[in-house]
Design a protein that fits this description.
Length: about 55
């Protein structure tokens, strides 16, 4: 879904819903999670809806 939304933004000339900086930050977090030993990552404390770029 994210890739389709990005391609739509590129094709239409609109700004993507997620900025490049936000994408890089998400990727860095994902890589850290994959590199971390099993069981060493705590679950997030915050629950509920999160802000989404508009």
């Amino acid at each position: 879904a994210e890739l389709v939304a990005f391609l739509d933004a590129v094709r239409s000339g609109n700004a993507p819903a997620v900025t490049g900086d936000e994408g890089v930050a998400s990727l860095e977090i994902a890589i850290k999670c994959l590199d971390a030993p099993a069981g060493s990552i705590a679950a997030p404390l915050r629950k509920g809806p999160r802000a989404v770029a508009s």
